[in-house]
Amino acid sequence: MPVPRLMGVLAARRALLRRLLPLLAAGGLAWPLGGAVLSQAAPLAQQEPPRTGGAYWAGRYGCVACHGARGEGTPIGPPLTGRPDSPLSYEVYLHQVRTPLLLMPDYPPEVLPDERVLAIAEYFWSQEPAR
Amino acid sequence: MAPLRIGRGFSERGLSLGAALLAASVLLFFGPARSTPGLAQTAAQPLDAPFVVADPSTYDMREYPLPESQTNPSPVGRAHSITVAPDGRIWYSGLVQHNLGMFDPATETFRTWDTPTPRSRPHGIQAAPDGMIWLTLTGIPQNKIARFDPVTELFTEYILPRPAPYPHTVWIARNGDVYFTYEYGDGVGRIDRELQRVTDFAIPTKRSRPYGIQEGPDGYIWVVEFLANKIARLDPRTGEVREWTHPRAAEDPGLRRLAIDAQGRIWFVEHEIGAIGRFDPQTETWQSWWMPRYNGRRDQAYALNFDSKGLLYVSNFGGNYIGRFDPRTESWTIYPHISQPVNCRLMAIDANDVLWCAGSATPVLVRLEAR
Fold first, then answer.
1. Global ipTM
2. What is the band of B40 on the pLDDT scale with cuts at 50, 70, 90?
3. Is the pLDDT of residue A23 over 70?
4. For site-directed labelling of A128, which of A12, A37, B68, B135 has its Cα 20 to 30 A away?
5. Which of A37, A61, A108 sits opposite B338 (nearest CB)?
6. Which residues of chain B have a CB within 8 Å of the CB of A58?
7. How far is A123 from chain B (nearest CA, A)?
8. What's the CA gap between B34 and B37, in Å, rounded?
9. What's the whole-model pTM score?
10. Residue A33: CB partners within 8 Å, gap ≥ 6?
11. Residue B31 DSSP label
């Protein structure tokens, strides 16, 4: 191997090692043993999500349990993604929540107020339809 | 009539007020305010509890990758709830892969069985003392319970009389009766031990989302209502259901799952805010403790289980850890998960106090042995 190319390979390896070392030092070496993984990687700093907004209410009222975390649909709930000018308008959401078709449970206004239904609809409208 | 004067001119009312104030001051200063029923009702904010992150030399945590189904493969959600059978084998409900799974700790091997009903979405799971594995099936038509015989490897499915009540968490009572919550049916169902009859019990609150369920040492069946923030008690003899509302229900703490201690006190998670709580049916008092904020988060407390020593293990999604709460010292020990995020669902503790749970965000079976 020509010397310049060899030096380049070694430099790339050193750079890779520099990137990996902090991870290995912080989290310990992940090492498989008997099919099991025994040690953890360094955690990523996070913040608690707000307890409001469409994404939160969709989880709190159980919408995502049947319709998927982003409204993509599951075997027990149809997809909900789409624009507000799609057939899934706010009025359709509200009607379905109050007097549902098929298996969906109904939610009275004192349990799920109109403004939260709108927030949930806006959340699912903002999601990309499943392909 | 002139007020009665006592001593140097104190009225009877004034003296009583002074005595009451003095007694209250003494109680507040010296007394165990947290266990005083009246104060607990009005000052029910969760208490801060000290915590330590466990020294790695004091525990062993492992993750076993869950097998992907050949018929319904899924990258995540391969397992949901866990139970330990009398023989020590670990069973799990394959919510997304529509199967039942088993892990044998002796050989560290998995096996799975597809349910007879396609797209069945097995959710709750519980091993009975006779070794039978009971499952709730939340797939359409959302009204089935299944029993799996590990010897014959055959499923038996039971169709519930109500349309789509969404049978959720299952619990086997000491007499062998099978109880389950109807998450979207505001009730509790029971299959009697002879498997000849299903009985439904209504929970009065509408859209309460009955979730965790367990039999107490008092013989009552206890349920937490996730959306209504209530605890319900079913008397299996009379069918009477009584509810207690959490004192901070207006703050929507989210009572999701429960565990009952040897004294019959009901412990529960406050899922939405990241706390645990305790309700004492004897005194009808409540107390809560925050879970530790680890890595910036403590929200989404999920399942909780007592070990044989009375230590309470709690899974926390937001902080991505298993916490162990010592009710005697009111302090936490944190066991961080290996993968991120794991989201351990319903857990189980085996006869050796080893904790098992499965991640719904990362497809792993978690084994935690704390020394």
1. 0.81
2. very low
3. no
4. B68
5. A37
6. none
7. 19
8. 8
9. 0.83
10. B62
11. S
